[in-house]
UniProtKB/TrEMBL annotation:
An MF annotation (GO) of this entry: protein-folding chaperone binding
Gene3D superfamilies per the UniProt record, alphabetical: Urease metallochaperone UreE, N-terminal domain
Protein name, per record: Chaperone DnaJ C-terminal domain-containing protein
Keywords from the named record: Chaperone
Lineage: Eukaryota, Cryptophyceae, Cryptomonadales, Cryptomonadaceae, Cryptomonas
Keyword Chaperone: yes
SUPFAM superfamilies in the record: HSP40/DnaJ peptide-binding domain
UniProt domain Chaperone DnaJ C-terminal: residue ranges: 1-91
Entry GO terms, CC: cytosol
Superkingdom: Eukaryota
Length: 158
């Protein structure tokens, strides 16, 4: 049979050799799993790889980095792969506003996909408001939010 050994590298990362492949597990926050992350892998030869994970990471997802494993045999330049599995850390709880924002983000109405959508422009502006907004500007933003009409409400009288 094959010999499997584990290499513990200085940075605390653990690589497991499986044949000519190297396998590791990296912990991600839920945010990173959904939006992307850079995984640093310290290799047995001392190199540090910075692997961009741009895919949405789901349970069971494995990022394959071709040619970053061990040599297949002493006479060959061919190498195995680096296989990165993920452990996704979910938050213990969500606040009310976090739930609302997730609802908007994950069940996005079709009209918000359009760049010219007024709702999209307002949402974008709200997300990017500076924290030190002047009181007069805060009042203007508040006035605009009071003008918005919900779909289930009758329009205001003219």
């Amino acid at each position: 049979g094959e010999v499997i050994f584990t290499v513990k590298v200085e940075g605390g990362g653990v690589l497991r050799a499986e044949g000519s492949d190297l396998r590791m597990t990296h912990r991600l926050t839920l945010y990173e799993a959904l939006t992307g992350a850079i995984v640093e892998a310290e290799m047995p030869d001392g190199r540090r790889l910075h692997v961009a994970v741009e895919e949405v990471v789901h349970p069971g997802f494995v990022k394959v980095v071709k040619g970053e494993g061990l040599r297949r045999d002493a006479d060959s330049a061919a190498r195995g792969d680096l296989l990165i599995s993920f452990d996704i850390k979910f938050p213990a709880r969500l606040s009310g506003i976090q739930r609302e924002l997730l609802d908007v983000a994950l069940r996005l109405p079709a009209d918000l996909e359009q760049p010219a959508s007024l709702q999209r422009q307002l949402l974008h502006a709200a997300i990017h408001l500076p924290p030190n907004l002047a009181k007069t500007e805060q009042d203007k933003v508040h006035a605009v939010t009071q003008l918005l009409v919900r779909r289930d409400e009758p329009p205001p009288p003219e």
